[in-house]
Design goal:
There is one protein chain. With 126 residues, the chain is an all-alpha fold. Among the domains are: 37 residues, no CATH class; 45 residues. The chain has 5 helices and no strands. Helix 1 packs across helix 2. It is elongated and about 65 Å long. About 8% of the residues have low confidence.
């Protein structure tokens, strides 16, 4: 990237990168002789990584558990509270799926009922 006489902006435009990136690569090349990107140092280990084996066992034992139930189990058994998306992503990362039990039936109406449960109307007398 050290084209003779070419400006940082011109090099950035040619490679579709920011001028800041070109500047950093040029500085690295001057200092180390390397023009390749350095290693990323911002990697954060997944919060539940130490519990992967325990989660695998739990899902194997209770494959019909919900995300909420697994979250409650993590707090109760291990003292670790995580959000719904964190648990979901952890299960995805581990290729674990939660199965619905065969005894659960879908509603006959096929619609979703949110909020209050359905109220039965009293029979009218005639």
């Amino acid at each position: 990237m050290s084209a003779a006489g070419e400006t940082i902006r011109a090099v950035a435009a040619r490679f579709s990168v920011s001028p800041s990136y070109v500047s950093k690569v040029r500085a690295r090349f001057r200092e180390t002789g390397e023009a390749t990107p350095g290693p990323q140092r911002n990697h954060v280990r997944p919060r539940l990584e130490p519990y992967y084996d325990m989660l695998r066992e739990r899902v194997a034992e209770q494959s019909d558990a919900t995300i909420a139930e697994l979250r409650a189990w993590m707090v109760r058994e291990h003292g670790v509270a995580v959000s719904h998306p964190v648990m979901w992503e952890t299960l995805r990362r581990l290729s674990l799926t939660l199965k619905k039990s065969g005894s659960e039936r879908r509603s006959r109406s096929g619609g979703h009922c949110r909020g209050a449960s359905r109220v039965e109307q009293p029979a009218t007398q005639t």
